[in-house]
Amino acid sequence: MEIQPHKINYYLQRRDPDFETKRAQVLHVYQQVEFIMENNEIKPLCDVYLSYDEKPGIQAIENTADDLPPVPGEHKTIGRDSEYKRHGTLSLLAGIDLVTGEVIGSVEERHRSREFVDFLKKLDTHYKPELRIQIVLDNHSAHISKETKAYLETVPDRFEFIFTPKHGSWLNVIETFFAKITKQVLRHIRVKSKEELKERIELYLQEVNKNPIPFRWTYGMQE
């Protein structure tokens, strides 16, 4: 094979020594979900299964000139002026119920420990108190902070965290939802304020939850 030293192909080294163990733990959650969905009579090990993450840096951008509609014979796409006005950013904190497909979301100014704890409290009020909530999530500092641990101590046995391995965000089902909302709503969105951006994201969540569709994970399950 002829070498091509003038070209570079990037790869990602697995730097987490426990990658396979953590991966197996995440896939075990998805396996439990499959059992529940295929056999309603099987009692799950945990009562609620969620996939959670944050989508930070959602920009609230306003046009400085009106968009131009497509015109037959002239241009077939929307015309948009290259200049725009920034109104700041928002973060979407979201968890998807792996059994029902329901998305529980919260649009915030930031995504610190404070916002994460508030989201856990939202889950606590959303689900019946006798149910245990198992969450697949990454190792973001807010998920393992002193503030988060202090809150978890106030609700013993209510939550269980299953952490994805480092560089293993692709194992988290919620990422498919973030890809979907980016493609359908956020990619070319223009708003006049952050308040409008928040309203439109929340409206999208309401629309999704009118007919929620559970995501069926299959990759690696046979292993």
What does this protein look like?
With 223 residues, the protein is of the alpha/beta class. The chain has a single domain, classed as Nucleotidyltransferase, domain 5 (2-Layer Sandwich), CATH 3.30.420.10. It is built from five helices and five strands. α3 links the parallel β4 and β5. The longest helix has 20 residues. The chain is globular. The model has no long low-confidence stretch (mean pLDDT 91).
CATH class: Alpha Beta
Helices, by number, come to: 5
**Alpha-carbon distance between the two ends:** 33 Å
CATH architecture grouping? 2-Layer Sandwich
Q: Which runs of at least 5 residues are low in confidence (pLDDT < 50)? A: none
The total number of structural domains is 1
β-strand number: 5
H/E element order: HEEEHEHEHH
> Fraction of residues in helices?
25-40%
The major β-sheet equals: 5 strands, mixed
Give keywords.
223 residues, alpha/beta, Nucleotidyltransferase, domain 5, five-stranded mixed β-sheet
